[in-house]
Structure formats: structure tokens, C-alpha cells
Design goal:
- The longest helix has 14 residues.
- The chain is elongated.
- The protein is built from 28 helices and no strands.
- By secondary structure, it is mainly α.
- It is 70% helix and 0% strand.
- It starts with 12 loop residues before the first helix and ends with a helix.
């Protein structure tokens, strides 16, 4: 392993001459794998005045990008010569993948101010940064610039625009970009389908898949993951099984992402045996895989197995996250396992330093409420660091109503539910029933009158799927 001298005064003259050979310098840059190496190489560059040469300083900055974007940026900003466009594009790319994507947008703006014209290698990364930062207006402005400069013909640029508009939930804009593309590939179709799923349009996602088949474009594993997500939204196990068959027939590798997506559709639809089979057949599992399986077991009454699997997950060394604890707390709530639920709730923040969210508090309120422990549920709500949401309030009041427990309910809490959701008839009925149970007869009568005056009704749950779209979905997997 080489190591440049830390003190530039100790560098032999012959070494300096060797470094000034472009090929030797390039090899030296490629071998610089640590910040310490880069600092020493930078000292050598300054001593030999190579920082005034476009080639040498550009090669050095490219090497620095692969080690430390912050160090590369400091060299970039202090360079006595304006770096060429490919260096700008490289640093914009690295920032777009980093924890500071906004810097990509800032650099892009500076690039335009100094007169450099972006090319097809620059635009995709600034588009990606706009999507990550939710900069809707900036993203639209960059898109306009792409149209003006004629780079809308580039498939890679268009594919990135599709993903950006999907991140913005601007599905109509994404569809317009997609329809105007003259050259589509599987990435284009996958991005469009993923955009529909992200915008909660699972039916449109499956219709797009039907169009994809008509264009004789074969889906890849990324496409199938989005399709399975659409099926999970619709709880359509028939299409989910068809996709699973496609995976098996075409020998598509079951990686952790695709395996988890298959696992989720089976688990959400109550096919626990099939879900467990996929779970056990996955060579690699991540935290999401374990959480989906635990949640599926809990949601369909297999609470003991869910708790056992949670313990096994901890034993593998994986640290549960907020979602994992929501799943196990929900399992304890469904079976009324109060002691276990309290144990997991305390473990969450005492051992794993995870602060409870609204969902965790909701699980605890529901768990105490189902067990008739109304006072404990009430204290959870009173001690929450945030205002309860309608789900928690309804859960608590329903528990009071179901158990016939008269509780000195805080009047502000009853009013809060109606303030948050003033147009939901079921809320008025529930608050009126609890008020009657607590002896507030006048309040209950006033609520029923107010409900009648507003024309509100308690509407039962219903489900409907449009016929034309439903027929198209049937054709999608034939």
C-alpha cells in the first residue's frame, strides 16, 4: 500500500516529475482511498501548481468525490480554474444521492450563472434532487429548461422526470411526460406504474401494466414489486398469485425486495400459510420482511406466533423500529395481552430509544379499552405529548360505550372529536351515546339535533369498483 509523504518538503524531485505524467497521476488518484491520502495528494498538487491545470485538478476532484463529497466540494470551491462540465455533473450527482440533495440544486443554479450549459448527464441528477427535496416549482422550471434545450428526447432524462413527478404526486404531469416519450424501456413503464402506486391509484397501475403487455415490454423485478404493491392496496389476491406464477415460470430471482412484496400481498389477504412459505424460503430478510410477517400474523388472529416471531427477530440481531413495535402492540391489543403490551411499550423507548408516536399511543388506548381498563386508557390520552387524533378518541369513547362504563370524561375531549371531524355523522352518534352514558342528557339531545340540522347520517361502510376498470384488470394478467 502506498502512502504519500505528509510533508511536501520531503517529496523527491523524481516523484514530482512522475506525478506530472497524466497516466501516473490518474493511477495515483485511483489509489487514493482515504481522506488522509487525498490531503497528501492535494499538498503535492499545490506544490507543483497542478491545480492550475484543468486535467489534473479535474481528475483529483473526481477521485475525491468517491471518498468524501465534502472534501471534493472544498477543492471545487477553491479551484483557481473553472472545472469542466463533467466535474460539475459528478458533484451534482454525488449530492443528489447524499443527505444534502439541495446542494445539487444550488450547484446547478451556479452552473447556469457562470454560463455553462447543462447536458444530458447533468439534468437527471438535479431532477432527482428536486424530487428528494420536494421542490415542485424548481422541478417544473428544470423541466421547462429541458424542453427549451431539446433534451426531452433523451430516455434517461425522461425516466428521471417520471420519477420526480411521481415523488411530487403529480401523476397527470408524469403521464404527460410518459405519453410524449418516443423511446420507452422497461424503466419507463416501471416508473409510470410506481408513480400510480405512490399516488394511491392502484387500478391505473394495473391498467398501465396491461398497456405495457400490449407493447410487448417484459416486466422486471422492479415492475413486479410495484404491481404487487398495487394488488396489496386492492387486496386482490388473484392477480397477486398470477404475478407470483410469473416469477416462478420466468425464474426471476426472489431478492429481498420482491420477496417482501410477495409476502405482503399474501399476508394482507389472509393467506398466512403461503406468506410463511415465502418468508421461510427467502435467503435474505430485512427488517421490513420480519415486520410484514409479524403484522400479517397479528392482523389475522395468530397473535402467539406474532410475538414468537418478534422475539426470534430480536435474537437474529435486528433492531426493531417504530413500525415493528406498532405491529407487536397491535397484536397485543387484539388478544387483550395487557401485560405483554405494556412490556413492549416500555422496551420501545427504554431499550431501543424509540419515542412513541400517535400510532403507538393509539395501540395502547385500544388495548386498555378492549380489556375494559377505561381509566388506564384515559390516562394514556391525558399524558400524551400531542393532541389525540380522531382514531384514538373514537377508540376510547367506543370502549366506554361497549363496556357501559361511566367515566368523568373531560368535556374538552368530547368537543375535540367534533372539532377535528365536524362533518362525520358517526362522531355525533358516538359522542351523544357517551354523553348519555355519563348522564349528560341535555348534551346528547343537543348533539342529535345538531346532527339533524346539518343533515348528517351515520353511513355504513361500503366498497365499490368501477365495472370498466375492473374488466380491464381481469385482462391484465391473462
Amino acid at each position: 500500500m502506498y502512502l504519500l509523504p505528509i510533508s511536501v518538503k520531503t517529496i523527491p524531485e523524481a516523484d514530482i516529475l512522475n506525478v506530472m505524467i497524466p497516466r501516473q497521476f490518474q493511477i495515483l488518484c485511483q489509489r487514493s482511498k482515504t481522506t488522509n491520502h487525498l490531503l497528501q495528494l492535494h499538498s503535492l498538487i499545490l506544490k507543483t501548481a497542478l491545480n492550475y491545470d484543468h486535467y489534473f485538478i479535474s481528475q483529483f476532484m473526481l477521485s475525491a468525490c468517491s471518498v468524501s463529497i465534502e472534501f471534493a466540494r472544498s477543492i471545487f470551491d477553491s479551484s483557481p480554474v473553472t472545472p469542466p462540465l463533467f466535474v460539475w455533473s459528478t458533484i451534482i450527482r454525488e449530492y443528489s444521492k447524499s443527505s444534502m440533495p439541495i446542494e445539487s440544486v444550488k450547484l446547478f443554479s451556479k452552473l447556469q450563472r457562470i454560463g455553462h450549459k447543462p447536458d444530458k448527464y447533468t439534468y437527471p441528477f438535479v431532477i432527482k434532487a428536486c424530487g428528494r427535496c420536494s421542490l415542485v416549482q424548481v422541478g417544473g422550471a428544470v423541466h421547462s429548461l429541458i424542453l427549451k434545450t431539446g433534451f426531452d428526447w433523451d430516455r434517461y432524462v425522461d425516466n428521471t422526470l417520471l420519477r420526480m413527478y411521481g415523488a411530487f404526486h403529480a401523476i397527470d404531469s408524469a403521464r404527460q411526460v410518459f405519453d410524449e416519450m418516443t423511446d420507452r424501456d422497461v424503466v419507463s413503464w416501471s416508473s409510470m406504474i410506481a408513480g400510480y402506486v405512490a399516488c394511491n391509484c392502484p387500478l391505473d397501475a394495473l391498467m398501465a401494466f396491461q398497456e405495457m403487455k400490449l407493447e410487448n415490454e417484459k416486466p422486471n423485478s422492479v415492475t413486479l414489486v410495484s404491481l404487487l404493491s398495487a394488488c396489496t392496496h386492492l387486496l386482490n389476491i388473484r392477480i397477486g398469485k398470477s404475478i407470483h406464477s410469473y416469477v416462478l415460470v420466468n425464474n426471476i430471482g426472489l431478492d429481498v425486495v420482491l420477496g417482501t412484496a410477495l409476502l405482503e400481498i399474501y399476508a394482507k389477504c389472509g393467506h398466512i400459510a403461503e406468506a410463511f412459505y415465502i418468508f421461510n424460503s427467502m435467503r435474505e430478510k430485512n427488517l421490513q420482511s420480519w415486520t410484514v410477517m409479524i403484522s400479517g400474523l397479528a392482523d389475522h388472529g395468530h397473535v402467539g406466533e406474532a410475538i414468537s416471531l418478534f422475539t426470534k427477530m430480536e435474537q437474529t440481531g435486528l433492531k426493531p423500529d417504530s413500525v415493528s413495535f406498532s405491529a407487536i402492540l397491535s397484536a397485543c391489543s387484539h388478544l387483550g395481552l395487557v401485560d405483554e403490551g405494556q412490556k413492549y411499550f416500555e422496551k420501545m423507548f427504554r431499550i431501543y430509544n424509540i419515542m412513541p408516536t400517535m400510532e403507538h399511543y393509539g395501540c395502547m388506548v385500544d388495548m386498555f379499552g378492549r380489556s375494559g381498563m377505561i381509566e388506564e386508557a384515559y390516562q394514556i390520552i391525558r399524558n400524551m405529548p400531542m393532541k389525540p387524533n380522531p382514531v384514538i378518541l373514537r377508540s376510547f369513547m367506543s370502549a366506554c360505550n361497549n363496556h357501559g362504563v361511566v367515566h368523568d370524561l373531560d368535556e374538552n375531549m368530547r368537543k375535540l372529536l367534533l372539532e377535528i371531524e365536524p362533518d362525520l355523522g358517526a362522531n355525533y352518534v358516538l359522542v351523544a351515546n357517551v354523553s348519555s352514558l355519563s348522564g349528560y342528557w341535555n348534551d346528547a339531545d343537543e348533539l342529535r339535533v345538531a346532527m339533524k340540522d346539518k343533515g348528517l347520517k351515520k353511513v355504513p361502510g361500503c366498497s365499490w369498483v368501477g365495472g370498466s376498470k375492473k374488466d380491464m384488470i381481469k385482462e391484465a394478467v391473462r
